[in-house]
Write a structure and sequence with these properties.
alpha/beta; three-stranded mixed beta sheet
Length: 368
């Protein structure tokens, strides 16, 4: 009797999973590049940095040397204790379009990314804002043109893709990049459906007036994370949000080298999920729960050979559809090498996400 119940739950789980991949994630798979060609508007690029001197020395010159008519780079040094400030002051002498905002440690202030970004936006000279992180490098010298080219009179937000560096012969690296691709598939697809819910601060553009009208981060200032996803959840609509996924628009970040560091990073990232809108919480929760149930029930029913023919067919259908969606999306995002490992990575990601969820129930991350 119990196995019969589990079998029917498994059938429902596969149906739900297929619905997500075909009717929702397929929206991104079928997406075409749209460029509005507003590449002459002046742009303010904002980067908040805390103890990032090493990374800035590598990536900041690539941003300062972008091929774009008029732009400034605003670097917010958020109370760094390394030589970040000294490096930026030296670089500023060589690049007049580099603007420095320096925040100092006080008894009551030890650094806060949302405060740093707010101060940077206040210092921005231009209406069009483009954001990335201190450990990011643009993949091409057309990064600004490509991202800002997806803004128009009505499209005031451009969601970009923030990739992670590739490390050969590293299963963890493939898992990190698979999770990044799957996350992008989701937020790009929901934006295409007209219900955008997040972007990534590694590669994001929007107009300053949207930030001001929303009173900045005021509604979630108490939450350490969320300078990207919670803000986008509040200001994005079906009409004002576009997606930018061409490889010349990508940024590349340094990937974590060990599981503990990546796990801590993801704990911080997912801590904002409970503040999403109810519809987004429901859809994201339904996808994860059915993704988890698919693997658990497939293993249970398969190991007991219960209706194994039907179970095998359903597993094959789900894995095939999953593979096709991931393959086409990875091709768009220039992440082809993870495709062959997709089924294994999907299983490992489910296990990791369950661990993240359970860990965050008992303790909350406390730094940005």
């Amino acid at each position: 009797m119990l196995l019969t119940v589990l079998f029917y739950i498994f059938i429902l789980t596969v149906v739900v999973q297929l619905s997500f991949y075909i009717f929702i994630f397929g929206k991104f798979t079928a997406s075409k590049r749209v460029l509005f060609n507003h590449s002459n508007v002046p742009v303010s690029i904002l980067i908040a940095a805390k103890n990032e001197a090493h990374n800035l020395k590598k990536g900041l010159p690539l941003i300062l040397e972008q091929k774009y008519p008029t732009f400034e780079v605003i670097l917010i040094d958020d109370a760094s204790t390394d030589d970040t400030l000294e490096f930026l002051q030296t670089l500023q002498k060589e690049h007049k379009h580099l603007k420095l905002v320096s925040l100092a440690n006080t008894i009551n202030y030890k650094g806060n990314k949302k405060n740093a970004i707010t101060r940077g936006i206040e210092a921005a000279s231009y209406e069009h804002l483009l954001f990335t992180d201190a450990d990011c490098e643009p993949k091409s010298n057309q990064w600004i043109s490509e991202m800002i080219g997806h803004l128009s009179e009505t499209r005031n937000i451009a969601l970009g893709y923030g990739a992670y560096e590739k490390i050969e012969r590293s299963l963890l690296n493939k898992l990190i990049r698979y999770e990044t691709v799957l996350s992008a598939i989701q937020y790009f697809s929901y934006a295409k459906l007209g219900i955008p819910y997040m972007g990534v601060g590694r590669n994001l553009a929007y107009r300053k007036d949207l930030f001001i009208k929303n009173n900045g981060f005021s509604s979630h200032r108490h939450i350490k994370s969320g300078d990207d996803d919670l803000l986008i959840s509040e200001i994005a609509t079906s009409k004002n949000t576009g997606i930018c996924f061409h490889k010349s628009s990508h940024t590349i970040s340094i990937a974590k080298k060990n599981f503990k560091s990546w796990f801590s990073q993801k704990r911080r990232h997912i801590s904002t999920a409970t503040s999403y809108r109810p519809l987004h919480q429901f859809l994201l929760g339904l996808f994860f729960s059915t993704q988890f149930l698919f693997w658990v029930l497939a293993i249970i029913l398969g190991s007991l050979a219960f209706n194994w023919q039907i179970v095998t067919i359903l597993v094959a259908i789900r894995l095939t559809v999953h593979y096709v969606i991931v393959q086409n999306s990875a091709k768009k995002l220039d992440e082809r090498d993870i495709v062959v490992f997709a089924p294994v990575l999907d299983f490992l990601l489910v296990c990791s996400q369950l661990g993240l969820f359970l860990t965050n129930i008992f303790s909350k991350p406390k730094h940005w």
